[in-house]
Amino acid sequence: MASILPQVRFAVKERLRKQLRKCRHADLRVRYLIILNLLNGRSARQTAEVLRVHVTTVYRVAGRFRKDEEWGLFDHRADNGTAKMDEHYLDVLYRVVRSSPDQHGWRRPTWTREMLVETLRHQTGQRIHVATMSRALALVQARRGRPRPVVRCPWSPWAKTRRLNAIHGLIASLPANEVAVYEDEVDVHLNPKIGLDWMGRGQQKEVVTPGQNEKRYLAGALDVRSGRLIWVEGEKKTSDLFIQLLVKLWRTYPQAKVIHVILDNYRIHSSRITEWALKCAGGRIMLHFLPPYCLNHNKIERRWEDLHGNVTRNHRCADMASLMREVRGYLQRQNRKASKASRRAG
What we know:
Blueprint: H1 10-22, H2 26-39, H3 44-51, H4 55-68, H5 77-80, H6 87-97, H7 113-124, H8 130-139, H9 157-172, E1 178-189, E2 215-223, E3 229-234, H10 239-252, E4 258-263, H11 272-280, E5 285-289, H12 300-312, H13 320-344
């Protein structure tokens, strides 16, 4: 490696290459190429010859990189005096962009670059151009994305933690003659849910929808030990569907002393007919309710998300019968994979 630059980590070089591929400014691309050539072992003179620039340009860019690292390549700080977009500025921007505008006195619910410029001016005393803010956002690896809607658990943190710890402790100390499963229901729509997909430039793919929607419902139970999914199907999401699943669990695990079912607080799980069915089970099936709105703690949710991603989202099935065949085939393949993994694990 050339001596005019310090040794850097492999991750730094990879980040420089990634920024080079995304860069659309000719001058900035040249400066990235200078640094990458020097880091790859070329001398200053060899780098100047390859890139057809003067050797003093190579030394000047290398000096900026030694002093200010990557952001020294952006704002020509050697010629513009005191730098504005320094490390402190980027640290503040990193924290601000992860917060909401209303926390900084704005009435708009989403950030714009102009709002970020003004907010950073109040917090750091430095005002930069909107175009420079775009480069600053790239340096802190900010991106425009779609927020995820969530509902907060109404329980106190103490009560929520106690319930989750009790469920985790149940699974960790589960006797060999007992079974624990995560339970939940999922909707299958004939009219496909639209999801992201790769497309060519200028292309927008079409997903043909049948028009008149139909629904089917699955109630499933994911075994915490084997990862196997047990499910039943129905045309309505009622207590009868849930009871059918409990009956299937009873028959699937005839040797289990107790079947522990971990589930959410949906009303069909605590209806009168469900309570009657549990009494008929004679204590062999026990329900353990998660705190409200804690979907991330129900492990079967990931299986349903994979089902949507691999089968139902953007599907092209013409009728419900063909769609349900695809659903069953996918779940059966996942069960076979889980069985193989369980056997390998002993």
